[in-house]
Design brief:
The complex is a heterotrimer of chains A (150), B (499) and C (764). Chain A has five helices and two strands, in the order H-H-H-H-E-E-H. With 150 residues, chain A is mostly helical. Chain A has one domain. A two-stranded antiparallel sheet of chain A has the order 1-2. In chain A, helix 1 runs antiparallel to helix 2. Chain B has a domain of 205 residues. In chain B, a hairpin with an 8-residue loop joins strand 1 and strand 2. In chain B, helix 2 packs antiparallel against helix 3, helix 5 packs antiparallel against helix 6 and helix 14 runs antiparallel to helix 17. The longest helix of chain B has 32 residues. In chain C, 73% of the residues lie in helices and 2% in strands. Chain C is built from 31 helices and two strands. The longest helix of chain C has 32 residues. Chain C is elongated. The relative contact order of chain C is 0.06. Classes of the chains: A mainly alpha (150), B mainly alpha (499), C mainly alpha (764). Chains in contact: A-B, A-C, B-C. The interface between B and C is large, with 119 and 106 residues.
Chain lengths: 150, 499, 764
């Protein structure tokens, strides 16, 4: 798989795909997309990176252990849920700090808040979990057949 | 209201925190035990609240039922969560003395608390699809716990376990999907009103069949219990104990919940099927146990057998029988977990779980003998321990319902249970150790003995307490059964008072 | 209650130090309790009773209620009195033994259980104690548990009595259901209803099973002689004086409620009579003195059962008197045999002889007890026997039968009494007995007191007769009994029968050698093998269990899958059948060509995945299936779901491909092998699911919730993508759970792979 073209292309494509995944994540509330899909796109990007440049390089690029990313995502989602609870509402209740109620009773402002935080958590969980499994498998393969290791 | 959320947040947070603390074992262990203790504390307050004021509900995300997901605790749910808290603390402490540090590092505590999250979620949710989600949490967490040791026999058990349980969750999902298609709702209190209104009996019965199948596999009912004896004896004793205590009971809980609230177990065919399955489950389970010679294998088959009693209680579908089923579950969780824990100490002291290769414990460790006898006699239904009352109520209910064959089966199975327990006693405790060099048994070191014995003593004390002071437990079971058979309080708590 | 708790406190003091006070503490406690009960005699002799009750589990009709009437008091006195003597004896017998404390604790626990049994008024409460005596007896029979024999016999005693116990429990529950009360004291009022109920035969059978197993009636008698594996003081206490009489107690207690009917009379008379006669024959056969005594105990239990069958006041009075007589002489003899075993070196009759000189004090005791056993005047045994004959003649329906049983059994008792009292003590001194000597005082005291009691109460029979026997018989018959107890009744039929008994007894004694050889020959032919029934049932159960487990739990995953799926299919078809196969959708919309194509592709992918032998093809086929499904999602406007599906498919292919690198190549199969059974189950499941789906499509969707989502999504949840809003807001808890699943799956997978690698590296 050590094709130079693939390696070079990957270095370009991966950041683009990750950026795209973030775009999908953010627009998800209104258009097709969201944390799940965004996370899967990002995962695909890193999987490609790992195929081209090896698991070790990908781990280095990520800086954080994938499993930790996943757990952090889960924690973030849980915190997003607790936000509502601590604000006196229900667990997982949407909190919109940037919205204000107009005199006519409508809401105005930026619809950002706990729900997006939750979706970011989902995104991180997907990225972290799938990469954790993929890396562990790749390393297992490498360990069981040392001559094929890159 | 917050309590319901906390019952989920505490195990979730503990799972996350124990992962983050994975490089500092001392902190990780402390967090694990603290999380379990917090869960117990929350569950006790929750239990007290439900006992005092009836069913309580909390909407998630602030969306009212039936649009959002609602958590509900009636007395059955609350009791199950309390007992989950008890088991959580017991196994968290026991694990300190038993779990291999390598397994701790790699995620034992996180998986354990994730499992507890699934269990409490399943007990508290008021939404059928959400129940499915918690089943998945349980399934995956338990798979992780089974595979954690990494030995070939453990992997073999784990694969059998997860594959057969996936068939069950698939059927569950199909059932939920079809039911939603037919009624447009997933809220169980809402379904309580919607299902009887369905005019298509095919829909009612096929969805009931799918859910019945799914929960029967989960409960390890005859003839779909294969996964249980294939896997329960392989992981660490701590894991075995928590599985034995909780997993099948979630299945039984789901059976009871769904077949009292959404369907009723008195439906034609369903009742007959449940009655026959209950009888055969009791019988095949106990016979399976009689054929084993390994402590944990014996105990595993006994789980199946005991599930039969609980399901018999549901299947008879009389008020007294449901009381019996609930009392049985509460009693059984404590006793069965404890037997596994004692089995772990037996293994530590004698070096094996194979009855042919151990012995001499009554001479070497009489205290352990007493600690074994309490849950063992309780399981066998010897008075005045908890199991006696549990069996008494179920048998009384069978006799009153004139199901004499099932009553007789329950009695004969009781005798065979006595036989199995005395087999362990004869071989592990009375028989001299086959290797005289090991006769004295190895001792436990101080920290180990504290961690291993405190949970055993605690659970044994609960068993004795339920036996001697049975009245409040019986009263709770009675109220819980009343709430199941007349779920108006449950429905009102979820949906509000209807005009 | 202080009376009851005294022995507990004393037992707690029994430290393993061997200090006399500690060792004899339990005995003193028991003696105190006995004195406390004795203080109640005047009250009971006045035909009154004492009842105390506290609530326990009111919902089940279970109360902590205790009743002291004549019947309970007799047993309580025997239990605590003999208990005190046996505890003192044991403390001496096991002096310095490392398990002395364990023995004393178990004996005290047993004593308390037994007391509870006879004092309980509530039948469930009585059953609680009943089972506790079973358990403590199990632990005591297996006291010498290093021996396999002791273990197996303890198990046998446990299983036989526990089986009976469970029958009894069912019987009690039925009694409660019919009579509406579980209080024994309230049952006589419901007697007519009980006896008239269609469940009466079932109740009778169940209760009698409980009583007969506990009291070792034929054919459940075999466990009792086997229980002689227990230490001798235990045998004396449990398996002669007290526990085995629990069955008799139960019969006596339930006589007013269930007795007096034809089935009751005939069953008790015949079972009791047969047990008595067979047991006395077996007693003659034995050479081990302890076993001889065990069989005579069975004989006594049979006799008691037989007399309880007769509903006459005299028969019941005879039973009660004999109960007391037997407890005195039998416990004394058992304890004396223990002395012989310990001090003369054997219990085998052939190895003992000439002990009269070195053990004269023991001989006196044995002789006194044996005289009472043989029924000589002026011992209490004589009065007991006379009463028995009088009672037998009073049995209305079948006096001749009962008299025959009684005379035969008693004659053999005379012979056994002779055997025990004469053979070991007279004649030449045997080699085994060369070093024989007298026992310590504490061991001698028990049998001496008991044997003397037989004499004292014989001379002054009113002490037990008016004070205890009459009130007890009154309880059972439900009418005041005031029988006179006298040594000399003049020349009457019972006296004649007594003389006949002695003559027969002497004849049997003289012919004992020949009889024993004859019986041994009969035994060799398997004539008396009632125990083989137990062995057969046990072996059969084990074989059945092994067979069943082999068949069900094969360890083969394919078979588990097949069965599990078969059950699913069967349930689904049953569901369809219950609904009358009403499965037609309401309005079938035309399916477009492209939809059909996608369906065909999905189906092709599914089939190809299953049938292909190439892993790579299987992955691709699976991908095809997933993509086709994604396309179908697109047709129905679920873009998010379709995107997710496609991405998941992509990643699955990547991951599975990595995993596959590790696996060995599949060996190419010669041809496609079709398992028709599996195919059938798969098709049945699939078709049934499809039919269920069409049935659902036939119903109208309730749009309450979908409408709410569509309306609230933008206005209240501030998102126009409903799918996403459902995922992260409306049903965020589901998503929270599902991402927990994903994380846990990742942790599990990583753990599994890491641990496996560690194992692999460790094994390298």
């Amino acid at each position: 798989m050590n094709s130079i073209i693939l390696t070079a292309a990957t270095r370009v494509i991966t950041p683009l795909m990750v950026a795209f995944s973030l775009f999908i994540l953010l627009r998800g509330h209104n258009e097709p997309g969201g944390g799940f899909i965004g996370g899967l796109v990002a995962t695909t990007a890193f999987a490609l990176y790992a195929k081209a440049l090896g698991v070790r390089a990908t781990r280095a690029a990520l800086r954080v252990e994938p499993a930790a990313i996943a757990v952090a995502g889960l924690g973030l989602a849980a915190l997003a849920g607790l936000w509502g609870l601590l604000a006196g509402g229900a667990f997982l209740e949407g909190m919109w700090p940037l919205l204000t109620t107009t005199p006519s009773g409508d809401k105005a402002g930026l619809p950002l808040g706990s729900v997006l935080l939750f979706d970011v958590g989902v995104y991180l969980v997907v990225v972290g979990s799938v990469l954790a499994i993929l890396f562990a498998l790749e390393e297992d393969v490498a360990a069981s057949s040392p001559e094929e290791a890159d | 209201m917050v309590l319901l959320t906390l019952a989920l947040v505490v195990p979730l947070a503990t799972a996350i925190l124990t992962f983050l603390a994975r490089r500092t074992p001392g902190l990780q262990r402390g967090l694990s035990v603290a999380g379990a203790a917090a869960l117990l504390a929350v569950s006790l307050v929750l239990g007290a609240e439900v006992v005092a004021g009836g069913p309580i509900a909390a909407t998630m995300g602030g969306w009212p039922a039936p649009f959002g997901i609602t958590l509900v605790a009636d007395l059955l749910s609350a009791a199950m969560v309390v007992i989950t808290g008890v088991i959580a603390l017991a196994v968290a402490v026991y694990g300190l003395g038993e779990i291999d540090p390598a397994e701790e590092r790699i995620g034992h505590h996180t998986l354990l608390h994730a499992l507890l999250l699934g269990v409490t979620g399943a007990f508290l949710t008021g939404d059928l699809f959400n129940l499915y989600v918690w089943f998945e949490v349980m399934l995956i967490a338990s798979f992780g716990l089974l595979a954690l040791g990494g030995r070939p026999d453990q992997l073999d058990g784990a694969i059998k376990y997860v594959a057969l349980n996936l068939v069950s969750t698939l059927a569950f999902l199909a059932g939920v999907g079809l039911l939603y298609g037919a009624t447009g709702t997933l809220n169980m209190a809402d379904l309580h009103g919607a299902v009887p209104d369905l005019d298509n009996a095919t829909v009612v019965f096929t969805t009931a069949a799918l859910l019945l199948f799914a929960f029967s596999v989960k409960s390890a009912l005859f003839p779909v219990f294969f996964w249980l004896p294939a896997s329960y004896h392989t992981p660490s004793v701590t894991t075995s104990a928590v599985f034995a205590a909780l997993l099948t009971k979630v299945g039984v809980y789901a059976l009871i919940r769904v077949f009292t609230l959404i369907y009723d177990a008195g439906m034609p065919l369903i009742q007959e099927l449940l009655l026959v399955a209950a009888g055969l489950t009791m019988l095949t389970g106990v016979l399976g146990a009689a054929a084993q010679n390994d402590i944990r294998r014996i105990l595993s088959f006994h789980i199946i057998s005991q599930i039969g009693y609980m399901v018999l209680g549901l299947a008879l579908y009389t008020p007294l029988a449901i009381v019996g089923a609930i009392f049985y579950i509460i009693h059984h969780i404590v006793v069965k977990a404890n037997l596994f824990l004692v089995g772990g100490v037996v293994k530590k002291l004698t070096g094996s779980e194979d009855l042919a290769r151990i012995g001499g414990l009554w001479a070497a460790a009489p205290w352990l003998g007493v600690l074994f006898l309490i849950p063992a006699l309780s399981l066998a239904g010897i008075p005045p321990l908890s199991g006696f009352w549990a069996k008494l109520v179920v048998i009384k209910a069978s006799l009153e319902a004139e199901h004499y064959v099932l009553a007789a089966t329950a009695l004969v199975v009781g005798l065979l249970t006595v036989y199995s327990m005395s087999k362990i006693w004869l071989e592990a405790f009375w028989k001299p150790h086959p290797e005289p060099a090991r006769a004295a048994g190895r001792g436990l070191d101080r920290g180990e003995s504290w961690a291993l014995l405190a949970p055993i003593v605690g659970l044994a004390a609960i068993t004795v307490l339920i036996g001697l002071v049975a009245a409040p437990f019986y009263a709770v079971s009675t109220t819980a059964a009343d709430q199941l058979l007349d779920p108006s309080a449950y429905v009102t708590a979820v949906l509000g008072a209807r005009p | 209650m202080a009376v009851v708790t005294a022995p507990v406190a004393a037992a707690a003091d029994a430290a393993p130090t061997g200090r006399p006070l500690a060792r004899y503490g339990p005995a003193l406690g028991s003696a105190t309790a006995c004195a406390g009960f004795a203080a109640l005699i005047p009250t009971i002799a006045d035909y009154s009773s004492i009842r105390v009750a506290w609530p326990w589990i009111s919902g089940l009709g279970v109360e902590l209620s205790f009743l002291i009437d004549g019947l309970a008091l007799i047993f309580a006195l025997l239990i605590t009195g003999i208990g005190a003597l046996v505890l003192a004896y044991s403390a001496s017998y096991f002096k310095g033994h490392h398990k002395l404390v364990r023995l004393l604790v178990l004996l005290v626990l047993f004593e308390l259980s037994m007391l509870g049994l006879v004092l309980a008024d509530n039948l469930i409460l009585m059953f609680v104690f009943w089972e506790l005596t079973t358990v403590t007896s199990f632990l005591l029979v297996g006291f010498d548990h290093e021996k396999a024999d002791a273990r197996n016999k303890a198990l046998q005693a446990l299983l036989v009595t526990a089986a009976g116990g469970l029958a009894l429990l069912a019987g009690i529950l039925l009694i409660g259901a019919v009579a509406g009360t579980l209080e024994a004291s309230a049952l006589p009022a419901a007697a007519a209803a009980l006896k008239a109920d269609p469940l009466y035969p079932a109740i009778l059978v169940l209760v009698l099973l409980g009583a007969f197993t506990k009291s070792a009636q034929f054919p459940f008698h075999f466990w009792l002689p086997n229980a002689m594996a227990a230490p001798t003081p235990v045998s004396a206490y449990l398996h002669s004086a007290t526990m085995v009489k629990a069955g008799v107690y139960l019969l006596a207690r339930l006589t007013p409620a269930l007795g007096g009917t034809g089935p009751w009379l005939w069953t008790l008379t015949i079972v009791g009579g047969v047990t008595a006669v067979l047991a006395s024959i077996w007693a003659l056969r034995q050479t081990d003195l302890k076993l001889t005594l065990a069989y005579t105990t069975v004989m006594a239990l049979g006799t008691l059962t037989m007399f309880l069958g007769g509903a006459s006041a005299i028969a019941l009075a005879a039973a009660v008197t004999f109960l007391i007589v037997h407890a005195f002489y039998k416990a004394a003899l058992f304890l004396a045999v223990g002395i012989l075993d310990k001090k003369a070196g054997s219990r085998e009759i052939d190895q003992l002889g000439g002990l009269a000189r070195p053990m004269w004090r023991t001989w006196v005791v044995v002789a006194l007890a044996a005289l009472s056993m043989a029924g000589f005047p002026p011992f209490l045994g004589f009065i007991g026997k006379e009463l028995k004959y009088e009672g037998a003649l009073a049995v209305a329906s079948e006096p001749l039968l009962v008299v025959t049983f009684a005379v035969a059994a008693n004659a053999m008792m005379v012979a056994v009494a002779g055997l025990v009292a004469i053979k070991p003590f007279l004649g030449p001194r045997t080699a085994t007995a060369a070093k024989a000597g007298e026992p310590p005082f504490a061991m001698w005291l028990g049998p001496a007191v008991l044997a003397t009691g037989g004499l004292v109460f014989g001379i002054a029979p009113e002490l037990v007769g008016a004070a205890l026997v009459n009130p007890t018989a009154s309880v059972m018959i439900g009418d005041r009994v005031a029988k006179d107890f006298k040594l000399w009744h003049g020349v009457n039929i019972p006296l004649m029968l007594s003389i006949l008994t002695f003559v027969l007894g002497v004849v049997i004694y003289l012919a004992l050698g020949r009889i024993r050889r004859g019986l041994a020959a009969g035994e060799a032919h398997g004539l008396w093998a009632a125990e083989s029934g137990y062995d057969g049932v046990l072996a059969g159960t084990k074989a059945l269990a092994a067979w069943q487990t082999r068949v069900i739990q094969t360890g083969r995953q394919t078979q588990y899958f097949l069965w599990t799926t078969t059950v699913l299919a069967a349930l689904l078809w049953a569901g369809l059948a219950m609904g009358g196969f009403a499965v037609m959708p309401r309005g079938v919309e035309a399916i477009s060509l492209i939809e059909l194509t996608m369906l065909a592709l999905a189906a092709f992918g599914a089939v190809a995945t299953v049938v292909t032998r190439s892993r790579l093809l299987a992955i691709l086929a699976l991908g095809l299936l997933g993509s086709a499904v994604a396309a179908i999602f697109v047709f129905y406007g679920a873009i998010d779901v379709a995107m997710t599906q496609l991405l998941v498919e992509t990643l699955i292919v990547v991951i599975v491909a990595v995993a596959l690198l590790r696996l060995p190549r599949l060996t190419p199969a010669p041809g496609l092998e079709v398992r028709w059974g599996h195919l059938g189950v798969a098709l049945a499941t699939g078709v049934a699911t499809a039919l269920a789906l069409t049935a659902v499509l036939g119903t109208e969707l309730d749009r309450r919730i979908t409408d709410f989502f569509e309306q609230a999504s933008a206005t209240e949840a501030f998102g126009r993508n409903i799918v996403n809003v459902i995922l992260v807001d409306f049903r965020a808890l589901d998503t929270l759970g599902e991402i927990a699943v994903v994380v846990v799956a990742a942790l599990g997978a990583v753990a599994l792979l890491t641990r496996r690698r560690e194992h692999r590296e460790a094994s390298r």
